[in-house]
Glutamate--tRNA ligase
Amino acid sequence: MTVKVRFAPSPTGRIHVGNVRTALMNYMFAKSHGGQFVLRIDDTDLERSTKEYEQGIKEDLTWLGLVWDETFNQSARFAQYEKAKEKLIADGLLYPCYETEDELDRKRKIQRAQGKPPVYDRAALSLTEADKAKYEAEGRKPHWRFKLSGGRIEWNDLVRGASHIETNSVSDPILIREDGSYLYTLPSVVDDIDAGITHIIRGEDHVTNSAAQIEIFHALGGPDAAPELGHHPLLVGADGEKLSKRLGSLSVQGLREEEAIEPLAILSVLAKVGTSDPVEVRPTVEALVTDFDLSKLSRTPARLDPADMRRLNARLLHDMRFDAVSDRLAAMGAKLDALAWEAIRPNLETLNDAKDWHVLIAGPVTPAIAEEDAEFLRAAAELLPADPLDAQSWSTWTSALKEQTGRKGKSLFMPLRQALTGQSHGPEMAVLLPLIGADRARRRLTGDVA
Ligand code: GLU
């Protein structure tokens, strides 16, 4: 059996960290089994779905490196859903109901008042043809419910282990609305059968759909038609609370464009949160796949700390080669060469910071000079060798200065750094000095903005 999984976003918005985690788990599961990863666009809701969002989702996944082997749109498959609908009706498993929202509400209230669970009473099953004709004559349109078996549905969940749902404790789910539009439940099953999906990996919020979907799989495809199911615990905030609106809406687009977080920092965090592995950065998606095992997933919610993303992002940048970033640096106006890149990268948290460090080299820098250091710095300017400076220049120069002025340690080095960069911390001065160059350095040492 070739493993085949799908990630099935609705193009009603851009994807956020929660979606990406589900996509990533599917991707890693597929790749770790030599299988295939399908991108299904769940756009049956024609009003809320847009091509722009679909395009955006594809862009985001591509940028992340989660490349799909196959993609299709549900909106192209209505004919298949109609066929499935007809089959279920013919088999007596899909029945029309005419209750309005208000009427259903009233029923639930009465049930609650009687201490009963608010499960749909199946009144529509006893409607005669004449009753239905009367409703239709009133202008009512039916919605359609799937008739659950009333039995116990069991499955061995890939994440949660032995699982079951008593179908007599849940309402027959509505599959088709009054206006004829499909809820996600039926199209998803039809597609999973037709695409040959072998495993469904999705969030725990879908567990309750599983009973109906397993029965629909059986109704449409026979007793072996249901794929294996895995429901992963959802992401929560670092404090264990439900993912706050701010965190929950952390979109890939925002992380990329506003926060300048690298794809592998996002993927590494999302692959590791809620597992028994430490949250550490991996250099490639393949490395994440190698580490991946569904059995490492904890059964408790996965805590997402956005600080982890910045921490892992910094790690990634510190090892990043110049040719991997040179285009982006140029695009942001940070004219750094390979040497300068190596000098500044240990100081970066995100690539955006490169701009600030670039200024240290090219200027303008406003030197920070304390009065008591002014004379020392003038001596330093005089002792500074001429261009070209090299990797040795800093130590030769500061040794000479030490000898001449008697200063050492912090009182020797800090005034130099502050004059040359305007700051008290930053990249290694030995690397920075040749990049700043003797001319600019001399001017900064004597208090010029340069
Ligand atoms: N479009 C559904 C969702 O995003 C897919 C759920 C599933 O994976 O079955 O919730």
